[in-house]
Amino acid sequence: MRLTQIRDFLAVVDAGSINAAARRLGVSQPGLTKSLGSLEEELGASLLKRSPTGVTLTALGRLFHVRVRAGYAELAKAQEELAREAKAQVALGFGPFFAAQVVPQAVLRWREKFPDVQLRLVEGLRHATGPMVRDASLDMSLAPRAPQGQDDPAIRFKPIAHLEQIVVARQGHPLAQARSAAALASQEWVSNLRRAATAEALRAIGAPEPRQVMECESFSTMSALLAGSDMLAIVQHPFLDMVLGMPQVDKALQQIPIAERLPGMTVGLHTRADAPLTRPAAALARLLAEIGRSLLQRQPPQS
Protein backbone atom coordinates (compact mmCIF):
# COMPACT_ATOMS: atom_id res chain seq x y z
CA MET A 1 0.00 0.00 0.00
CA ARG A 2 1.46 3.37 -1.06
CA LEU A 3 0.75 6.87 0.29
CA THR A 4 -0.38 7.95 -3.18
CA GLN A 5 -3.07 5.27 -3.09
CA ILE A 6 -4.34 6.59 0.26
CA ARG A 7 -4.24 10.14 -1.09
CA ASP A 8 -6.23 9.09 -4.17
CA PHE A 9 -8.82 7.20 -2.09
CA LEU A 10 -9.37 10.15 0.26
CA ALA A 11 -9.60 12.59 -2.65
CA VAL A 12 -12.31 10.50 -4.34
CA VAL A 13 -14.32 10.22 -1.12
CA ASP A 14 -14.08 13.99 -0.51
CA ALA A 15 -14.93 14.89 -4.11
CA GLY A 16 -17.74 12.34 -4.47
CA SER A 17 -16.62 11.19 -7.90
CA ILE A 18 -13.53 9.94 -9.66
CA ASN A 19 -13.67 12.63 -12.34
CA ALA A 20 -13.89 15.47 -9.78
CA ALA A 21 -11.05 13.98 -7.72
CA ALA A 22 -8.86 13.61 -10.82
CA ARG A 23 -9.34 17.30 -11.63
CA ARG A 24 -8.45 18.31 -8.05
CA LEU A 25 -5.34 16.16 -8.01
CA GLY A 26 -4.30 17.08 -11.52
CA VAL A 27 -4.12 13.45 -12.67
CA SER A 28 -5.91 11.48 -15.37
CA GLN A 29 -9.19 9.73 -14.67
CA PRO A 30 -7.90 6.34 -15.95
CA GLY A 31 -4.79 6.65 -13.77
CA LEU A 32 -6.89 7.42 -10.69
CA THR A 33 -9.23 4.50 -11.44
CA LYS A 34 -6.22 2.20 -11.72
CA SER A 35 -4.82 3.44 -8.39
CA LEU A 36 -8.12 2.74 -6.61
CA GLY A 37 -8.41 -0.69 -8.23
CA SER A 38 -4.92 -1.70 -7.13
CA LEU A 39 -5.67 -0.51 -3.56
CA GLU A 40 -8.84 -2.61 -3.37
CA GLU A 41 -6.98 -5.58 -4.84
CA GLU A 42 -4.21 -5.34 -2.24
CA LEU A 43 -6.75 -5.09 0.58
CA GLY A 44 -8.96 -7.81 -0.83
CA ALA A 45 -12.03 -5.67 -0.25
CA SER A 46 -14.35 -3.39 -2.18
CA LEU A 47 -14.13 0.12 -0.75
CA LEU A 48 -16.29 2.13 -3.14
CA LYS A 49 -19.62 1.70 -4.91
CA ARG A 50 -19.48 3.23 -8.39
CA SER A 51 -22.60 4.66 -10.03
CA PRO A 52 -23.37 7.13 -12.84
CA THR A 53 -23.85 9.87 -10.23
CA GLY A 54 -20.56 9.27 -8.40
CA VAL A 55 -19.12 7.03 -5.70
CA THR A 56 -20.15 6.08 -2.16
CA LEU A 57 -18.38 4.09 0.53
CA THR A 58 -19.12 0.44 1.19
CA ALA A 59 -19.41 -0.76 4.78
CA LEU A 60 -15.76 -1.85 4.69
CA GLY A 61 -14.90 1.38 2.92
CA ARG A 62 -16.35 3.41 5.81
CA LEU A 63 -14.22 1.52 8.34
CA PHE A 64 -11.11 1.97 6.20
CA HIS A 65 -11.87 5.65 5.64
CA VAL A 66 -12.07 6.43 9.40
CA ARG A 67 -8.68 4.85 10.04
CA VAL A 68 -6.71 6.17 7.10
CA ARG A 69 -8.01 9.73 7.24
CA ALA A 70 -6.55 10.29 10.72
CA GLY A 71 -3.31 8.53 9.84
CA TYR A 72 -2.87 10.41 6.57
CA ALA A 73 -3.48 13.73 8.34
CA GLU A 74 -0.69 12.95 10.83
CA LEU A 75 1.67 11.98 8.02
CA ALA A 76 0.85 15.22 6.22
CA LYS A 77 1.64 17.19 9.37
CA ALA A 78 4.93 15.34 9.73
CA GLN A 79 5.84 16.19 6.13
CA GLU A 80 4.95 19.84 6.71
CA GLU A 81 7.09 19.97 9.85
CA LEU A 82 10.06 18.42 8.08
CA ALA A 83 9.65 20.88 5.22
CA ARG A 84 9.44 23.78 7.66
CA GLU A 85 12.51 22.62 9.52
CA ALA A 86 14.46 22.38 6.27
CA LYS A 87 13.87 26.14 5.88
CA ALA A 88 13.18 26.70 9.57
CA GLN A 89 12.39 29.99 11.19
CA VAL A 90 11.79 30.62 14.88
CA ALA A 91 10.08 33.71 16.26
CA LEU A 92 10.35 34.61 19.95
CA GLY A 93 8.61 37.38 21.84
CA PHE A 94 9.74 38.60 25.26
CA GLY A 95 9.16 41.40 27.72
CA PRO A 96 11.78 44.06 28.51
CA PHE A 97 12.63 42.38 31.82
CA PHE A 98 14.02 39.36 29.94
CA ALA A 99 15.85 41.31 27.25
CA ALA A 100 18.92 42.13 29.34
CA GLN A 101 20.24 38.67 30.17
CA VAL A 102 17.88 35.71 29.74
CA VAL A 103 17.21 36.05 26.01
CA PRO A 104 20.79 36.95 24.89
CA GLN A 105 22.34 34.03 26.80
CA ALA A 106 19.77 31.55 25.49
CA VAL A 107 20.07 32.79 21.90
CA LEU A 108 23.88 32.63 21.85
CA ARG A 109 23.87 29.03 23.09
CA TRP A 110 21.03 28.08 20.74
CA ARG A 111 22.82 29.43 17.66
CA GLU A 112 25.70 27.03 18.30
CA LYS A 113 23.34 24.16 17.44
CA PHE A 114 21.14 25.91 14.88
CA PRO A 115 23.36 28.37 13.01
CA ASP A 116 21.30 28.18 9.80
CA VAL A 117 17.86 28.72 11.33
CA GLN A 118 16.34 32.16 10.88
CA LEU A 119 15.52 33.78 14.23
CA ARG A 120 13.16 36.69 14.82
CA LEU A 121 13.21 38.46 18.19
CA VAL A 122 10.32 40.72 19.20
CA GLU A 123 10.39 42.75 22.40
CA GLY A 124 7.07 43.81 23.86
CA LEU A 125 4.73 43.51 26.82
CA ARG A 126 2.52 40.44 27.24
CA HIS A 127 -0.58 42.20 25.93
CA ALA A 128 1.31 42.74 22.64
CA THR A 129 3.14 39.41 22.27
CA GLY A 130 0.24 37.23 23.49
CA PRO A 131 -1.98 37.79 20.42
CA MET A 132 1.04 37.18 18.19
CA VAL A 133 1.48 33.73 19.73
CA ARG A 134 -2.23 33.09 19.28
CA ASP A 135 -2.18 33.88 15.54
CA ALA A 136 1.17 32.04 15.07
CA SER A 137 3.15 35.20 14.24
CA LEU A 138 5.37 34.10 17.15
CA ASP A 139 6.24 30.53 18.13
CA MET A 140 6.38 31.51 21.80
CA SER A 141 6.73 34.42 24.17
CA LEU A 142 8.54 34.80 27.47
CA ALA A 143 6.29 36.82 29.74
CA PRO A 144 4.41 36.93 33.05
CA ARG A 145 1.39 34.68 33.50
CA ALA A 146 -1.96 36.25 32.64
CA PRO A 147 -3.90 37.64 35.61
CA GLN A 148 -6.27 35.19 37.26
CA GLY A 149 -9.42 34.72 35.22
CA GLN A 150 -7.84 36.07 32.03
CA ASP A 151 -6.20 32.85 30.76
CA ASP A 152 -6.57 32.25 27.03
CA PRO A 153 -7.56 28.60 26.30
CA ALA A 154 -5.68 28.81 22.98
CA ILE A 155 -2.40 29.46 24.83
CA ARG A 156 -0.40 26.97 26.89
CA PHE A 157 1.65 28.43 29.75
CA LYS A 158 4.76 26.71 31.14
CA PRO A 159 6.05 28.39 34.32
CA ILE A 160 9.78 29.04 34.68
CA ALA A 161 10.05 30.96 37.95
CA HIS A 162 7.96 32.64 40.63
CA LEU A 163 9.47 36.00 41.46
CA GLU A 164 9.19 38.22 44.51
CA GLN A 165 8.47 41.87 43.77
CA ILE A 166 10.08 44.86 45.44
CA VAL A 167 9.94 48.66 45.27
CA VAL A 168 13.03 50.39 43.84
CA ALA A 169 14.15 53.99 43.55
CA ARG A 170 17.33 56.01 43.02
CA GLN A 171 19.98 56.14 45.71
CA GLY A 172 19.25 59.07 48.00
CA HIS A 173 15.54 59.17 47.18
CA PRO A 174 13.61 61.31 49.70
CA LEU A 175 11.50 58.28 50.63
CA ALA A 176 14.37 55.78 50.69
CA GLN A 177 13.72 54.94 54.34
CA ALA A 178 9.96 54.55 54.00
CA ARG A 179 8.62 51.42 55.64
CA SER A 180 5.04 51.50 54.39
CA ALA A 181 3.62 51.36 50.87
CA ALA A 182 1.04 53.95 51.91
CA ALA A 183 3.85 56.51 52.22
CA LEU A 184 4.81 55.97 48.58
CA ALA A 185 1.49 56.08 46.75
CA SER A 186 1.60 59.86 46.12
CA GLN A 187 4.79 59.49 44.05
CA GLU A 188 4.96 59.07 40.29
CA TRP A 189 5.60 55.46 39.26
CA VAL A 190 7.02 53.79 36.15
CA SER A 191 6.23 50.23 35.11
CA ASN A 192 7.66 47.78 32.58
CA LEU A 193 4.35 45.90 32.73
CA ARG A 194 0.90 47.15 31.86
CA ARG A 195 -0.02 50.29 33.78
CA ALA A 196 -2.70 48.60 35.88
CA ALA A 197 -0.19 46.09 37.32
CA THR A 198 1.28 48.69 39.70
CA ALA A 199 -2.13 49.70 41.02
CA GLU A 200 -3.14 46.05 41.45
CA ALA A 201 0.03 45.22 43.40
CA LEU A 202 -0.44 48.18 45.74
CA ARG A 203 -4.13 47.44 46.15
CA ALA A 204 -3.29 43.85 47.13
CA ILE A 205 -1.41 45.08 50.20
CA GLY A 206 -3.99 47.70 51.14
CA ALA A 207 -2.06 50.72 49.84
CA PRO A 208 -3.75 53.68 48.11
CA GLU A 209 -3.94 53.91 44.31
CA PRO A 210 -0.78 55.45 42.76
CA ARG A 211 -1.08 59.05 41.62
CA GLN A 212 0.45 58.43 38.21
CA VAL A 213 1.98 55.42 36.43
CA MET A 214 4.09 55.70 33.30
CA GLU A 215 4.18 52.55 31.14
CA CYS A 216 7.65 51.88 29.69
CA GLU A 217 8.40 48.92 27.46
CA SER A 218 12.16 49.53 27.50
CA PHE A 219 14.17 48.00 30.36
CA SER A 220 17.11 50.38 29.89
CA THR A 221 14.91 53.47 29.58
CA MET A 222 12.95 52.61 32.71
CA SER A 223 16.21 52.07 34.61
CA ALA A 224 17.55 55.45 33.47
CA LEU A 225 14.28 57.18 34.42
CA LEU A 226 14.48 55.72 37.91
CA ALA A 227 18.13 56.70 38.31
CA GLY A 228 17.55 60.27 37.17
CA SER A 229 14.30 61.14 38.93
CA ASP A 230 12.17 60.55 42.01
CA MET A 231 10.03 57.98 40.21
CA LEU A 232 9.39 54.62 41.87
CA ALA A 233 8.83 51.19 40.37
CA ILE A 234 7.60 47.78 41.44
CA VAL A 235 9.99 45.31 39.88
CA GLN A 236 10.86 41.64 40.09
CA HIS A 237 13.65 40.94 42.58
CA PRO A 238 16.49 40.14 40.09
CA PHE A 239 16.06 43.65 38.65
CA LEU A 240 18.84 45.20 40.71
CA ASP A 241 21.26 42.43 39.66
CA MET A 242 20.39 43.00 36.01
CA VAL A 243 21.14 46.73 36.00
CA LEU A 244 24.65 46.23 37.40
CA GLY A 245 27.15 47.43 34.85
CA MET A 246 24.61 49.43 32.83
CA PRO A 247 25.98 52.93 32.01
CA GLN A 248 24.52 55.72 34.20
CA VAL A 249 22.51 53.18 36.18
CA ASP A 250 25.07 50.89 37.85
CA LYS A 251 24.71 51.19 41.65
CA ALA A 252 22.38 54.16 41.21
CA LEU A 253 19.28 52.26 42.32
CA GLN A 254 18.22 50.71 45.61
CA GLN A 255 15.34 48.83 47.17
CA ILE A 256 12.90 50.68 49.40
CA PRO A 257 12.31 48.14 52.19
CA ILE A 258 8.59 48.48 52.88
CA ALA A 259 7.12 46.19 55.53
CA GLU A 260 4.32 44.83 53.33
CA ARG A 261 5.08 41.87 51.07
CA LEU A 262 4.01 42.60 47.51
CA PRO A 263 2.31 39.79 45.55
CA GLY A 264 4.73 37.64 43.56
CA MET A 265 4.70 37.09 39.84
CA THR A 266 5.01 33.86 37.85
CA VAL A 267 6.88 34.12 34.56
CA GLY A 268 7.23 31.53 31.84
CA LEU A 269 6.72 30.51 28.23
CA HIS A 270 3.49 31.02 26.31
CA THR A 271 2.94 28.72 23.28
CA ARG A 272 -0.04 27.68 21.18
CA ALA A 273 -2.04 24.91 22.82
CA ASP A 274 -2.93 23.20 19.55
CA ALA A 275 0.46 23.08 17.82
CA PRO A 276 3.75 21.49 18.94
CA LEU A 277 6.94 23.48 18.58
CA THR A 278 9.36 22.61 15.81
CA ARG A 279 12.63 21.01 16.89
CA PRO A 280 14.62 24.29 16.74
CA ALA A 281 11.87 26.19 18.60
CA ALA A 282 11.62 23.48 21.26
CA ALA A 283 15.39 23.61 21.76
CA LEU A 284 15.23 27.38 22.27
CA ALA A 285 12.34 26.94 24.71
CA ARG A 286 14.41 24.50 26.79
CA LEU A 287 17.34 26.92 26.92
CA LEU A 288 15.09 29.83 27.91
CA ALA A 289 13.66 27.74 30.75
CA GLU A 290 17.08 26.54 31.92
CA ILE A 291 18.77 29.95 31.81
CA GLY A 292 15.68 31.71 33.11
CA ARG A 293 15.56 29.52 36.20
CA SER A 294 19.28 29.93 36.90
CA LEU A 295 19.12 33.73 36.60
CA LEU A 296 15.73 34.42 38.10
CA GLN A 297 15.34 31.98 40.97
CA ARG A 298 17.56 33.83 43.41
CA GLN A 299 16.73 35.01 46.88
CA PRO A 300 15.43 38.60 46.87
CA PRO A 301 17.78 41.22 48.31
CA GLN A 302 17.56 41.63 52.06
CA SER A 303 15.77 44.69 53.40
Identify the CATH class of the largest domain. Alpha Beta
Q: Measured on Cα atoms, how large is the radius of gyration?
A: 28 Å
* CATH-derived topology of the largest domain: D-Maltodextrin-Binding Protein, domain 2
Broad shape: elongated
Strand content: 15-25%
- Helix percent band: 40-55%
Q: Tell me, rounded to a whole number, the average pLDDT.
A: 86
Count of individual helical segments: 11
Helix/strand-derived class?
alpha/beta
Secondary-structure element pattern, one letter each = HHHEEHEHHEHEEEEHEHEHEEH
Keywords: DNA-binding, Transcription, Transcription regulation
Protein name: HTH lysR-type domain-containing protein
InterPro entries: HTH-type_LysR_regulators, LysR_HTH_N, LysR_subst-bd, WH-like_DNA-bd_sf, WH_DNA-bd_sf
Family: Belongs to the LysR transcriptional regulatory family.
Summarize the structure.
The chain has eleven helices and twelve strands.
Would you mind describing this structure in some detail?
The chain has helices at 3-15, 18-25, 29-43, 59-86, 96-99, 102-113, 126-134, 195-204, 219-227, 239-242, 279-296, and strands spanning 48-51, 54-57, 89-94, 118-123, 140-144, 155-163, 165-170, 188-191, 212-215, 233-236, 253-256, 265-272. It is an alpha/beta fold. The chain folds into three domains: 3-86, Arc Repressor Mutant, subunit A; 89-162 and 266-296, D-Maltodextrin-Binding Protein, domain 2 (3-Layer(aba) Sandwich); 165-263, D-Maltodextrin-Binding Protein, domain 2, CATH 3.40.190. The strands form four sheets. The protein has a five-stranded mixed sheet, with helices on both faces. Strands 10-7-11 form a three-stranded antiparallel sheet. Strand 8, helix 8 and strand 9 form a beta-alpha-beta unit. Helix 1 (3-15) packs across helix 3 and helix 1 (3-15) crosses helix 4 (59-86). The relative contact order is 0.14.
